Amino acid sequence: MAEIESSADATHLQDHPDWVYLLQEFDAIYRMGSSGGSTIIRSHRKRVRDRLSNEVKSNPLIIKKPPVNLPVTAHLPRALDLGERGVMQGITRALRKVLGDLVWEYGYQKLPRSLVKKYAYCEVLGPNGPVKADNLIIGFVLFAPSTTYPQHNHPEIEESYISISGSWSENNSAVFSPGSLIFNTPGAKHRITTGDIDPCLLAYAWTGSRERLMGPDMNFSRK
After folding, report:
1. pLDDT tens digits, residue range 99-157?
2. Which residues contact 217 (CB under 8 A, 6 or more apart)?
3. Among 51, 91, 195, 199, which one is most buried in terms of CB atoms within 10 A?
């Protein structure tokens, strides 16, 4: 990191307006959305906003990496088109501006074959994102239609997902549409399924200790 900071080529967040505007949209969806009367979700929303605000104020480094696409990103144009038609159009349009700088990945050393063409995520801000931060992770998850994402959990990480486009369910408990927020307490097991017709794009935020965010231990639960 010291070598990057001392490099004449190093740039910071305020040098990249498109990233600034995208982070502003993240702040907006965590500020304006409803907590449904839940004090726990309200606290989580504030925690995400406060950490995001602190990171933005620090004017963090921007680490430009070669973009990476995976098979599921063939569904991304459709997901963005749907997002721009609905209540999440602001963050969808801001995401379009940085498409050429996104690194889509799987995050697992061993991925089920059924997910290879149906899932990927991109970190926007965090230890491994283009916007460097160690106190918060935010990004996007993309699923193809008719995807079943197996049961999994993230120890010691508090997480939320906000629907940008498409429909999905968690643990077969309800159907969630654009604008909906799902909150998972640390270690909570969850399973995701998506609708049959359109792809599903989610924004996500993870909070936890710096040590845990550096290595979130992404594993599927054993059957």
Report:
1. 999 999 998 778 889 899 999 999 999 999 999 999 999 999 999 999 988 877 777 88
2. 154, 155
3. 199
